[in-house]
Amino acid sequence: MLFSSGLFWALFIVFLPVYALLKRRLWQMLLFVTAFSLYFYYKSSGIFFLLLTATSLLDWTLSKLLVELDRKWQRKACVWLSVICSLGILGYFKYANFFLWNWNIMVEGNFQPLDIILPVGISFYTFQSISYIVDVYKGRVAPTETWLEYVFFLSFFPALVAGPIVRADYFIPQIRENRSASIDETFAGLWLIIIGVIKKALIADYISQYNDLIFLSPTGYSGFESLMGVVGYTMQIYCDFSGYSDMAIGLALIMGFRLTPNFNFPYKSLNVTEFWRRWHISLSTWLRDYIYIPLGGNRKGTARTYLNNFLTMLIGGLWHGAAWKFVFWGALHGAGLAVHKACRPWLDRLPRNRFITFLSWTVTMLFVSLLWVFFRAESWTDSWLIIRNIFTNFQPECIIPFFETRWLWVTMMAVIIIAHALPEGTWDRAGEWYVRAPWVVKLILFIIVVQLVIQFMSEEVSPFIYFQF
Question: Which of 188, 213, 214, 338 is the most buried (most CB within 10 A)?
Fold first, then answer.
């Protein structure tokens, strides 16, 4: 079940008035939304909704036990039991075949992959589960009084299958507060949903049709065409994932809940450190708070700081997928963070002019875009074939025919580039204008967006890229 599908919106239209009627009755509202969330997850992952339910029950039981114990080793045992169970389940579904395949290579055996289906969103709710038990242990948040409150938090359907990663200390207090969305918040949520639909269902799904051709045939096109495919995927993954996040945040806001922003125009970044402050913010802050800082952060000397950056991003890469290309992707980003920190004293002495700004942006985008190749390509070999093709078979004579043939693809790419080039706050002001606009204007804009999506949609609704993680 996808946010960009007609089935979801048909169900949500039925869901919303019932939710509004139950909003003032806290426990009835929690039960109704939890049931809807579990049904939503059942439509995404089938019988694995029971796994989510079992995980929530174990975590909640351990969190209640944790606060009743006096001895530190007993409290730590509860935390480790929860973390090991959560990571063990994630490890089996996501990494069992990866490790068995590598073991098979070392012993030269005859490996047959296990028939394992990866539950959608398991990486996201596992990280939420871990953050909850750790935050309870450190006193950042009190355990929920009832299991229903906790399973509501863990299964909250707007953020369930592809984030943002919801932090317990931010979200759980909102459950008891049980505030209703104001009229302005409702329209602000609708604005975010419209922006998300434009990004995902209009732009990302359309430009993906050309990008897929390039990645399915790494040497079948000229270097220039391959370069356009790489640039296209760079924009596609942003529109796809940030579009989902916008819709998730918008849906939650309409329901009276606030989720943290997950993207802040990451392609404006002038260095890789800034990029990770703007890209997938909920994951970046999670990795910082629950891996980087526990490893020592920047408190144990310069060399250890660089190593901690590298290890954190290495884990982040492995979180994204059970393949060496994801490990390489994370390792290179970790190395990039370390190099940037090492060069910072020298970089800070450079003059702040347009040339240096443009050069910094170009180097950052080149680094990020080329690494996206490893993220998207079918294999490690395909990744290198595409990159080599760009640098050894450019064929500039293909440029004009490409722009003439792919003018709509180029136009959509230009829209995203211009959106990033606009001054900070422009889209916030646009959202404020939409909230204040007459209902007729809101209706016209909504109809235009729906018509554009119908006009350019493919035969099937494309899944969100991050569903695979």
Answer: 214
Q: How many CB atoms lie within 10 A of CB 301?
A: 10
Cα–Cα distance for residue pair 430/423, rounded to 1 Å: 12
d(CA 435, CA 417): 25
In the residue annotation, 280 being an active-site residue is answered as no
The pTM is what?
A: 0.90
**DSSP assigned state of 377:** S
Distance CA 69, CA 85 (A): 20
User: Which residues lie closer than 8 Å to 434 by C-beta, 6 or more apart?
Assistant: 187, 188, 191, 441, 442, 445
Residue 436: Cβ-neighbour burial (10 angstroms; 0-12, 13-18, 19+): exposed
Beta carbons within 10 angstroms of residue 92's beta carbon: 12
Both tokens of residue 203? 């732009």
Rounded Cα distance between 367 and 4, Å, is 31
- CB atoms under 10 Å from CB of 201, counted, come to 28
pLDDT at 272 over 90: yes
Cβ neighbours of 196 (radius 10 Å): 23
Q: Where are the alpha helices (DSSP H) in 108-222?
A: 122-137, 147-155, 168-177, 183-197, 205-216
Write the single-letter amino acid at 378. Answer: E
Tell me the residue type at 7. L
Catalytic residue among 320, 333, 340, 420: 320
